[in-house]
Amino acid sequence: MPKPLFDQVDKVAYEGPETDNSFAYRHYDPDREVLGKAMKDHLRFAVCYWHNFVFLGQDMFGGDTFQRPWAGREGMDVARAKAAAAFELCTKLDAPYFTFHDRDIAPEGDSLAETNGFVDEIVALFATEMQRTGVKLLWGTANLFSHPRYAAGAATNPDPDVFAYAGAQVKKAMDVTYQLGGENYVLWGGREGYDTLLNTDLRRETEQLGRFMQLVVDHKHKIGFEGTLLIEPKPMEPTKHQYDSDAASVHAFLRKFGLEREIALNIEVNHATLAGKSFVHELAYAVANDLLGSVDVNRGDPQNGWDTDQFPNSAEELTLAFVEILRGGGLGAGGCNFDAKLRRQSIDPHDLLHAHIGGVDTLARGLVQAVRLIEEGAVDRFREERYARWTEPLGRDILAGKKSLEDLAAWVLETNLEPTPVSGRQEMLENLVNRVV
Ligand code: XLS
Ligand code: NI
Ligand code: NI
């Protein structure tokens, strides 16, 4: 048995809003019923491997700062120590799920065969730990962006050898995700984009990416994986422009290749804001197009332009997010993955607990407040009444294709039609939101 990493805490439990204990949940009450479903089944939160166990506090200007027993070491011993810490963190947080990239869990070997062997060893360890603790896999993914071979992209690389290597890597990552009972598989196109159009054939690269996704879909069906395939949009970083920029551009891509029934979206807060959109916009777009699969929760810093991946702490933002999620029928087999990392000065392992506790409580508040807003009904009623005239004959006939422009023109002229503007009542609606947050 390795020494515990989080030795000040046995288990983080719900103690209610009045507690003084900073290692307790104040709002996340896992079995509390919300809209006929336990809170834990709405949130399905996940601890991610990369930010928690791989990242050690480095930034562009300095190296590792975090106090971790594996700092400065590498190899399979370190991989085993990280796995033990991961299951310790999940169990202590009562986290139902975790997520990982293939290269987070084991080091790269001298050949793909050796690397796959390392992965298999840790996956076997995961299987035992998952059995022992009851923690499940929300999704797995492949890291197709860190190794220098992927500097010019993976599927969109000008060299088909790199496409082949990426294919081999994704096959393995999908196989182990399936083996561990993963409920989804994520594809984030970290370097599927360009740094300059001077050396880039955009049409060709898009075709390559379409082919790659088709191969992924084929493999899923071949092995009988029943989880959902998800693409995670992000507009830039590390590349200047990423093809999967936002929900709408991924939607267009999926339709171009006839994959919109096969692949859904994993929407990340900080990616939405990087794209100049809001999280709630991206969710609303996904819901409106039946594409919402799962979410990566975090937040950016409004003062900085980049993907700062901080833990979420705005209950207002998450309230509006859950309104959209609930309108779409919930997260289904998806969940809320904390794709978030500690600040460089938060060097104590226990800071990982504080970070997740705050994030989980913010999610719980968002959920409960969204339900209050929905149950109060005024916002939804207003929205419905705003479109009520579309259920009357004129609106119905237009939508049913029974009116041509000629018909409309004739009718407007005949009746001397003059539409009456009505208030959109934005400020009143914002006040209604502020009553619950
Ligand atoms: C990076 C992404 C990444 C994906 C998984 O910005 O958020 O972490 O979630 O590859
Ligand atoms: Ni991200
Ligand atoms: Ni992410």
* Largest beta sheet: strand ordering: 3-4-5-6-8-10-11-12
Number of strands: 12
Strand pairing plus helix content: what structural class? alpha/beta
Main sheet overview: 8 strands, parallel, barrel
What would the principal axes of the Cα set say about the shape?
globular
Order of helices and strands: EEHEHHEHHEHEEHEEHEHHEHEHHHHH
Helix % is 40-55%
Q: Would you identify the regions where 5 or more consecutive residues have pLDDT less than 50?
A: none
Count the domains.
Answer: 2
The hetero compounds bound to this protein are:
D-xylose, nickel (II) ion
Q: What is the overall pLDDT average?
A: 97
* Cα distance spanning the termini: 45 Å
Would you state the CATH class of the largest domain?
A: Alpha Beta
Q: What is the CATH homology-level superfamily of the largest domain? A: Divalent-metal-dependent TIM barrel enzymes
Oligomer status: single chain
Query: From the coordinates shown, what is the CATH architecture of the largest domain?
Result: Alpha-Beta Barrel
Q: Examine the coordinates and then state which fold CATH places here, giving the name of the CATH topology of the largest domain.
A: TIM Barrel
Give the helix tally: 16
How big a fraction of the residues is strand? 5-15%
- Rg, rounded, reads 24 Å
Record keyword descriptors for this entry.
16 helices; 8-stranded parallel β-barrel; binds nickel (II) ion; two-stranded antiparallel ribbon; binds D-xylose; single chain; 437 residues; alpha/beta; 2 domains; TIM Barrel
